[in-house]
Amino acid sequence: MMTLLRQRLRRDWVQLLLWILGTVLLAYSGFAGVTQSYGTHSDRVTVLAAVMANPVIMMFRGLPSGASEGQFMAFEILPWLTMLAALMSTFLAVRHTRGDEEAGRAELVASTPAARTLPTVATLIHGVAANVVLGVLVALVLVGAKLDAAGSWVAGAVSATTGIAFLGIGLLAAQLMRTSRGANALTIWVLVGTFLLNGIGNAAGTPSTDLTRITSSWLVWLSPFGWAEQARPYDTNLWGPAVVGLAFGVVLAIVATALQSVRDLGEGFIPARRGRVHARPGLASSQALVWRLSYGSIIGWAIGGALTGILATTLSGLLNQVSSGNSAVTDILQKLGGGSSLNNVVITVFFTMLGILGACAAVQTMSRARQEEAHGTAELLLATTVGRVKWLSGYLVVAVCAIVIIAGAAMATGYLGAASNKGTAEVFRNITVTGLSEMVAAAVFAVVTALIFVLIPRATIALGWTLLLLATLFGMFGPLFGLPEWTTHLSPFGVTPVLKGDGVDVRGLWWLVGIVIVGWAASLGLMRRRQLASDG
Questions:
Q1: What is the secondary structure of 8-56 as a DSSP string?
Q2: Model confidence at 54, in pLDDT bands (50, 70, 90)?
Q3: What are phi and psi for residue 65, nearest 5 degrees?
């Protein structure tokens, strides 16, 4: 057992350090942002009242439990603390179970006197320990910020137990699916579905008479995110929901261990779909194969883009209402939008999320190239007439196509929303400018991840997602957390063109275009000389 735990720690310590430090930084920055942007009780009451006036926005926020600094901080960032813990845990669970089976490491362990269920048990202990460290550090940083200690420890505890709940989901998905890709896809869909379910439960709840608190509907109890929020840190400070999350994760882990003991190595309980005897004519190229492997996830990201577009035009009135009564919020929005008018900035703020969704699809697509190489399937393809450059260019083309599809979905729904609200010509022009701008920003991450894949293949997945996370924190949350303006400009999302009067302020557009062109050419040029690195 100790040997397996040490091996997992050696493999994971960098990734876990990044996940945990990122979560802790978000907790501290969230508190700093609340104190700077919503410094008075009346500011916080105004925001909560405006949010409750439009239940749709509740689907993407936390649970209002009052207007004190701690309560408002939990409303702002608790869903994202639990989200980071959940993502860390699901990836960890699948990597050390189904991922090890695909790489052949699980077979080597099974050939020793160790029990065949020992790797799953070791992964459970490893994941629980990582979440405990995350929860303790989150609590300590909030206590250090001079928030109420009881509420801080509850916030840390539910962050950890939500991670443990999704650790159990990841372990179970690894037993059900035959591949790590399928297991990761299943856990992500469960994560997104339960996150939205919790949001719907909050939106369908009953507001208090002073509009600072919501009593959620019963739907929230079907989601681990709902359990975390029902603990209500800095309000009632309930420990019961944390126990529910912990028990749920442990029970699923026990079920996963039992399932592993009765299945064959390399098999899953959900059988693989039977393939065709002969491929369709459309699969006659390596690029078409990349599309075939990626189109399912691209559809999911495109749905997110479509939701972003409709929210950008239907919730703009609410954001205007909130900002009109709070000069600090107005300042933040104008920083995000490059100093343009508030009406233009509203759409710019929402479409920043569009760029992030497109970048996520691009990084995921380029990461798949590394997965194919590590699993040895790329070697089979490259043994044919397909060259290295053509093979990598297929992933780059599909990554850019994914960005265009996602941005196109957002722009289409944005136009529909603007038309239904009788938007002006300026609104339609702003949707076009910001949509096209975010395409360029997202394309930066496609070529940067491709360069990482060529130069440091083993760091492709971890470094690609880390750079995207940092760019999101700086570009989207930098002004909210009161960071200097130059830090926002480090992110491609913080320097995209915006409308300014009757014209367009291109800001960092040409730098972004230059990075995309140089990165594309450099990654393909360097790929000519790189040897395959098929070991995981």
A1: HHHHHHHHHHHHHHHHHHHHHHHHHHHHHHS-SHHHHHHHHHHHHTSGG
A2: low
A3: -130, 20
